[in-house]
Request: fold
Amino acid sequence: KEQLYIGIRYFDLRVCRTTDSKLSSKSPFTFTHGLLGGLVREGLEEINEFLNKHPKEIILLDFNHFYDFNDQCGHEQLIELIHEIFGKKICTTAETILECTLNYLWNNQQQVILLYERNRDQCSAYMDRIGHFFQICQSPWPNTPRTDNLFLFLDEKVAVPRSTTCINVIQGQITPDTATIQNNPFSSLETHARETNRRLIEWLSLRQRDPSLINGVNVVICDFADQLFADTVIKLNHKNLTSL
Reply:
């Protein structure tokens, strides 16, 4: 909920199907990223509550990793849960992402763009419930524990023309390796992320002054996002008035 109110509108969601009877009695799905997180049902209901209060807000939900989904049944259950919670808020009428302008979504009273990282053929039976956006998210992983290498990677990626038919994401995140953990026994992921985020905000601010340096990027993500990060990303949408 805190992320929603500081301005975060894209959620990178990784889901585990659990057999833990204590959890599965409420919902068989939990969020996960290395460790198990909260229940998917509870997280999605929080988002839906926010959307009910703010009918012009648009959310992108990117379901991109599925763990212990042993068969099609797991996807059917998850899709049914998503549809149960959001219903007609999900954009199911647009067939391409380019159609999803704010006016289009507002006119159709749709607030959720659902990105589902699965083959379209495997999900064709669900399009009336979750839409048409399968495997359209390009989100290259830097996979480095070093901040300097992260920004070399980002510079390289934003220099390449991006597809206009995809959601293009840049990941402003380091990935600590074993050596990083061993050399910093009293530190934490959050400590490392805060320093990375400081440099990421500087990197983004430079691109606000020259928007041509970040053309084609739709989403920027980081660990432990805060208000300053959200405000900096939002400003990338503003025209560079000094060039007019």
Remarks:
- Residues 147 and 199 are 9 Å apart (CA to CA).
- DSSP finds eleven helices and eight strands in the chain.
- The two ends are 38 Å apart (CA to CA).
